[in-house]
Amino acid sequence: MFHSKSSQGFSLIELMIVLAIMGVAMSLTGGLVIQAFEKNKRQVELERVKQAFKVYGYRSFYSGYDTKVELVGNTAVISSGADEEPEVIEFESLTFVAEQFHISQKLTIQPATFGVFINEQPRFYGVPSVLEHGQ
Asked: InterPro entries, alphabetically (predicted)?
């Protein structure tokens, strides 16, 4: 029997070429996807740090005790003037510039910036005021 060329599917060579092209394209874009994911994770953790400063500011105000926050490596160690065990918060994608912060019961936080190493270079961010709304 005679089969016309139009009724046949793709040849094995054609399928292998398409798979090779797709493999190359995915290997080129895979690194970009991972970088975007890491950057997004870092942004989320930066927001967690900023929110933590606000939360502990409120706690200092309402408890009547000052709070100390120490950022070292990838951890934040929070201790209150009350006889509580220090709280430790660990971060996956942030490495801090070592610094100690004082959160007073009068809603002030000193110093006013905290540093994070990004690509081995320090980048500094403002500590949000407890009284700020939104971002």
From this structure: N_methyl_site, Pilin-like
